[in-house]
Amino acid sequence: MAELARVNKTYIDFKKERVNPNLVLSIEESGKTVDAIKKTEKVMKIISTVFTYIFILVLALGVIFPFYWMIITSLKQRTEIIAANQTFFPKIVMWTNFSYVFSVFDFTNYMFNTIIVAIFSTIGTLLTTVFAAFAFARLKFKGRDAVFAVFLMTMMIPGEMMVISNYLTVSAFGWISNQTRIDAYLCMIVPFVVSVFHIYLLRQNFKQIPNELYLAAKVDGKSDWSFLWQVMVPLAAPTLISITILKFMGTWNSYVWPALVTKKEEFRLISNGLRGSAFTNVDTNEVEYGYQMAASFCVTVPLFLLFVFFRKYIMRGVGRAGIKG
User: Fold this and answer.
1) pTM surpassing 0.85?
2) Which of 54, 74, 94 is a domain's end point?
3) φ and ψ of 286, to 5 deg
């Protein structure tokens, strides 16, 4: 035992002699350096986060400010609206602007036209989008990729270049001359039931569905029609909801085309009515911006609520379509 204790003491003394004090000091200094680096990184991260949120806040204010200005303008007197020094809150709140709007503006007729055109245009777009996206994603036929490439090329053509050809088409169908309400609806619905962007969006989503599901459905004796409606459409529900909302909002905000193809005021949409003569002073021939902003606010609220409640579906649908199939 004495011999073992002596050996242990010799080993411990040897270890102490082998320890380099400079090495111990350098390890301690390196530890302090690492802590300093971590603190610096933490501070930089906080600063970066603060600047990021400031930037987002500035952008948010830039988006919200026009809506705020519309609201306060709808509550101002005309003299305050045209004043040189604008205020950020009305001196006298004119709630009567809204009551006047509902008394002179034919909301019922315009809203009815807009809802009818938006619903049927959305349904038509959904049908053409589902069938075309399924064909381009699953069916194999000669020239499929070439046709789809041509479809994508048409997205580079400005919509204004299609106005004349679309007008000639609906005119050749007899929907312009001696126009009835049904003819006006057809003029506003039929030319826009196909959307290349929506087809592309849904096709990318369909391509993410595993091909094994399609082959398994074929083994079970399922037809393409059954596989489309029982498997692909339910799996692509977020994208379809996104397309529905985007199409409905686009139709709701249409202005140029409905104003061009409708021959009577009562056939037009809500956006056309906002630019009508209901908000023009007969004596001075000047636009009553307070009344017009009040009507614009009433028209904007449904779309705003639609986006607020369904924004997650829009983001999810667009995000899933952006993933490579």
Assistant:
1) no
2) 74
3) -110, 150
